[in-house]
Amino acid sequence: MAALMEGENMRSSRRSVALVSLVLAAATVLGGCGDGETDRLKAEDGPVEGGNAITPAKLTAHEGREVEIAVTNTAKDKQHGFKIDDFEVEEVIDQGKTTTVKFKADKAGTFKVYCHLHPTHKPAELVVS
Length: 129
Ligand SMILES: [Cu+2]
Fold this sequence. Notes:
Layout: H1 2-32, E1 38-48, E2 51-55, E3 58-61, E4 66-73, E5 80-84, E6 89-93, E7 98-104, E8 109-113, E9 124-128
Parallel strand pairs: 1-4, 3-9
Antiparallel strand pairs: 1-2, 4-7, 5-6, 8-9
The protein binds copper (II) ion (CU).
The site of copper (II) ion has 7 residues, from strand 5.
């Protein structure tokens, strides 16, 4: 019985060592590349006064960075889309849910951010500079 338990402890401590090495290796890789910065943004997609809109109307990001936009569909009754052609972003978000889209802002400019499900849904713009 004692021997069994000892064996179990050995195994779990070896597993911890392996886990720590893995975390250290990951930290080294991530810390090693200088352009690993991420712009984290939030947007809402759904009903506003007079219709539907993606807000804020202007989202900004830095050229060359990874971008994460947490998009919340604020509608109670239907799905909305979130699309940015230039960065191949296309999502359909269920009502009340938040989806995080990720892409690399690898070019500068002003890009249309829109709902591809509803043509009258007011778009926003993404400015990368
Ligand atoms: Cu929509």
